[in-house]
Structures are given as C-alpha cells and as structure tokens.
Amino acid sequence: MKIIVAKTAGFCFGVKRAIDIAFQIAQEKRKDVYTLGPIIHNPQVVKKLRKKGIAPIDSIDAKKNIKALIIRTHGIPLEISQKILSESCEVIDTTCPFVKKAQYYAKLLNEEGYQVVILGEKNHPEVQSLMSYAGGDVVVVNGEMPLPKLKRKVGIVVQTTQPLESLKKVLSRTLELAKEIKVYNTICNSTALRLNETARIAGKVDVMVVVGGKNSANTTQLTRLCESLGVPTYHIETASEIRKAWIQNAKKIGITAGASTPAWIITDVEKRMRDIGG
Amino acid sequence: MKIIVAKTAGFCFGVKRAIDIAFQIAQEKRKDVYTLGPIIHNPQVVKKLRKKGIAPIDSIDAKKNIKALIIRTHGIPLEISQKILSESCEVIDTTCPFVKKAQYYAKLLNEEGYQVVILGEKNHPEVQSLMSYAGGDVVVVNGEMPLPKLKRKVGIVVQTTQPLESLKKVLSRTLELAKEIKVYNTICNSTALRLNETARIAGKVDVMVVVGGKNSANTTQLTRLCESLGVPTYHIETASEIRKAWIQNAKKIGITAGASTPAWIITDVEKRMRDIGG
Fold it and tell me: Is A112 on the interface with B (CB under 8 A)?
C-alpha cells in the first residue's frame, strides 16, 4: 500500500500566523482573553486553544469582562470592528493579510463607483466581512448560480479560498451584463496550489482521504474536487474516523488537507492508515 | 424557395454616419478632398465615392495639394492625427464614436498603469489606431492564440467588431496571468446583435450568403461564424458573383451582411437570387 501525502496539505501562511500569535498569547497565561468566533475552522485546534485558556465567544456582548479579543483569520465585519474599537479591551488582529487585502479592494471598488460582486459562500465569515466593506449594492455569487441584474460598472473580489475556475465562470457571465469590469483576483496562491496538487494526486490513487474541519470551506472544497474526479473520497477530521473497509483494497491512497488542518492531525492520519493497512 | 434577409444586415450607426458625411461633402463638389485610406471596407462604396470626386490616399505625403482630409470610420493612429494637425488642410473626422471611446479607454488604462491588451486583428486599421493610444507595453491578441507573459495589472479593450466569445476566452486566460484586470467591453452592440441574428438564421437555412467587402473584418467574421455552424456559406461582394449551383437545391436561403455593406447591394443580391431561383 502506497500513501501519497500532498505537500500543500495543511496550514497556510495566514493560518500559521494566526495560530502562532494565539498560542503565544496563551503561553503568557493572561486572563479573560477570547477569540471572536473560532479562530480557524478546525475544531481540534480550537479545543486545544480552549484548554490553554483561550475560548471562542460568539459576540462581544456574550462576556462581560473581556481583557483582550483575538480577531479570527477570516476577518470580521466592519460594523463589529468599529464596535470593538469603542470597547476598552485590547484587540489582537489575526485576520489573514490576504483577507485584509480583499477587504481593502472591496472598499476601493465601492468608492470608485463599481457595484461590488463577491465570489464566495454567502454565509462564510470571510465573505460576511468582505460584504461589510463593499457598499449597499453588493451581490454575493458562487460559481454555479446565474447572476442577478447588474449595473454598468461591476467590480469583482473573491473569497481567498475559491477555485480559479469559478472566477472564470463568473467573469464570463458578468461580461454578458456589464460594460466595465474591474477584477481583483484575491484568490490566494496557496489555495490554487493545493487544489492543483490535490487534483493531480486524486488522478492517480484508488482512494482519497481529505483531512480537516467539517466546517472548513476550503477542506469541503477539496472533498468536492476529488469526488468530481470520480475517486472514492472520505472527509475526516481525525484519524479515529478511518475505517478499514475504505482502504483495504486500495493500492494507492492519497491524503490531502485544508489550510486549517494542523500537521499533527495529518501525521496521525497517515500513521493510522499504515497501522490498519499493514 | 424562401429567402430570409437578416434585419441587422448592413450599415451600422458609425458607417452610416461616415458615409452620410462623405457624400454630403461630395455633393458640395469641393476640389482636393481625400479620404485617408478607404473610408469603410467596402470597395463598391469606395468606388462610388471616388466617382463623386473623393478618392482615398494611402498617406498625407501621397498628395501635395490636400484641401480637406476625411478620417475613416476605423480611426487612425495618434501619430498620424498629430501629423495631420500640423498640416494646413481641413480635417473631417468620421471615426466611429464607439471606436473613439475605445481609443479613450486604451489611453486611460495606460495612464492608470495597466498593461493594455487589445483583443482584435493586429493589422486592422482600428486596432492600429487603438495601439497608438495604449502605451509601449501594449499587446494585441485574438481569441485563439495563447497569451504572452503579462504584467500584474492588465487592462483590456476590444476592437468594436469582435465576438463576445473571444473576449470571454481572452479574459479567462488573462486570469491565469494577472492579478488585477480592468476590462472595457468596447464591442459595439450592433456587432453582437448581427452575430446573434446571423447564427439564428444560419441554424435554419440550407445555404447562407454573406454580403460585403472581402477586406471587411466583420463580414469575414460572419462568414466564419456560418461555416462553423456547418451550413454551406458563400461570401460575395456583389450580386454578380452568385452561382445558380449554390442555390438551386436550397429550400431556404439566408442572407446577412457586414456593417459596411450598403443596402442597395443587399437588395441587388436578394433580387438576383429570386431571378435565378425562379
């Protein structure tokens, strides 16, 4: 049995940066430090951080005595940033710098008179944050749905973890509706590399195992990609979920993981597979 | 035998405007009035205008005594505009207003720091004119060729008679290379309508006849479109070219024509077909 682990599996630059900052603060053993929402979309990492004393809260009203608040990698809506600034707590911003850039472009496009179109998942916190910068005419679309009526001038920004293929589709459709289009391709490079490597591996294995939070959009996207290529695919959060039946007849197995999956979970999964597979 | 003539066949707004201006001047019977290059890409119209006393010249150096110079619908390069302005002759500019707009956007994109990509036919006078406004980094591409290496910021303008499908292709490819893209879709509406109607007619006839200058890019494009849809297609300039063998077994015949084809030639073609077809 051969196991191929994607080189691009696991923490991207932005997630690594956020987790380093958060665990550094945890080490200082300060009291009343919280993350606003889960810092990344990986329940195991969030649990580990909670054990170190930093728990997520849903809103700043949820706790009375906040000393410091950590802003998650996905960013937060502008209104909430402003509300936090009016509080007396310290703010530690781990928003991914690439998400910050997308926020900036959404704001710029709106100021330049473009109707902003965001390619992404409407309920994802990153998109929620981008929307708050994009002005009142903002429209959120995914790569599959038809576009609504658009204005003459349309500006496009993209959730950093979307596939380029979706942007191509949306842009082609926008050309039917708008006369002037400005696109900031804010898809981050590590997303593109991870999707490409995953597709390459999925093309030559009998089974794909995708590791990462069930709530992680980019991990789910990897799963969908592998499935669309016709290879049996299993999305797991931890090694304990692996079933012998999945892999016992496989000669080659591929492992990939989302940007929010820590290396230790990926190592565990590989190890467990070798234990089961013999 | 049923003949369907495309409603969108023939003179577009810009060509009609230019021809009206030129023949108006011809009527004034002034001496030493010339067009710089053929005013439109239709040899029959150019011949008619020559008979009325207005002939095309290749360059302003070609004639010594120019009293007035008519600028063709396709526009001219900026350097030549400047050279003409330094001469003492009168300038009558019949550049299509939509081409003027594309020139303006090419200039604007260059000033805003974009590397300008022009979608069009490199040797076409409209594209030659656009290039002169687009700065030193300008690249000309068509819908089929791979793109060269591009800068981070790319601005796209389009020859007014290109099909939207080509713009979609070029834009998809540009997304692989540039991070910020600004597109001015300068394809004129009458081009899009003519291509759409032609495709619709070609889909339901036995033979298509495309009428217009052999040197007309948009007429040639209509021919290619019909051929690509698998219908026997003939590109002619005048009624005299029609052969009985083309249409004798046809139950339905479609006629379309480029933006530079005058109504009288289209009428002649239809009449000649009815004469032959019985």
Answer: no
Interface A-B: count of C-beta contacts within 8 A: 47
Cα angle B74, B78, B82 (rounded to 5 degrees) comes to: 120
What is the number of residues in chain B?
278
Our CA-based measurement puts residue B253 at a distance from the nearest CA of chain A, in whole angstroms, of: 30
Whether B179 has its CB under 8 Å from any CB of chain A: the answer is: yes
Contacts of B52 (CB under 8 A, 6+ apart): B23, B26, B27
Beta bridge partners, A184, equal B180
Q: How far is CA B243 from CA B24, B56, B75, B211, in A?
A: 36, 32, 36, 14
Nearest of A123, A119, A115 to residue A145 by alpha carbon: A119
Supply the residues of A annotated as catalytic.
Answer: 126
* A119 φ, ψ (degrees, to nearest 5): -90, 115
How would you classify the pairing of strands B153-158 and B139-141?
unpaired
Give the list of residues 6+ apart from residue A15 with CB closer than 8 angstroms, or none.
Answer: A40, A73, A96, A259, A260
How far is it, in rounded angstroms, from Cα B271 to Cα B90?
41
Which amino acid, one-letter code, is at B72? R
Compute the nearest-CA separation of B164 from chain A (Å).
8
- B172: chain A residues, CB-CB within 8 Å: 168, 171-172
Global pTM value: 0.88
Give B175 to chain A, closest Cα distance, Å: 7
Which of A175, A178, A183 has its CB closest to that of B167? Answer: A175
Q: Calculate what percentage of chain B has a pLDDT beyond 90.
A: 91
Mean pLDDT confidence for B234-243:
97
Instruction: Please name the residues in contact with B206: beta carbons below 8 A apart, sequence gap of 6 or more.
Output: B231, B232, B249, B250, B251, B252, B253
Is B171 in contact with A167 (Cβ distance < 8 A)?
no
Identify residue B276 by its one-letter amino acid code: I
Establish if A176 touches chain B: CB-CB under 8 angstroms. Answer: yes
Q: Give the up-direction half-sphere exposure of residue A10: CA atoms within 13 A in the CB hemisphere.
A: 15
A223-266 pLDDT, tens digit per residue, is 999 999 999 999 999 999 999 999 988 999 999 999 999 999 99
Q: Report the C-alpha gap between B99 and B111 in whole angstroms.
A: 18
Angle, helices B217-228 vs B189-202, to 10°: value is 30
Are B172 and A176 in contact (CB < 8 Å)? no
Q: How confident is the model at residue A278 (pLDDT cuts 50, 70, 90)?
A: low
The pLDDT assigned to B278 comes to: 60
Per the CB < 8 Å rule, is B181 touching A180?
A: no
ipTM of this complex: 0.85
Asked whether the beta carbons of residue B164 and residue A175 sit closer than 8 angstroms, the reply is yes
**Other Cβ atoms within 10 Å of A123 Cβ, number:** 9
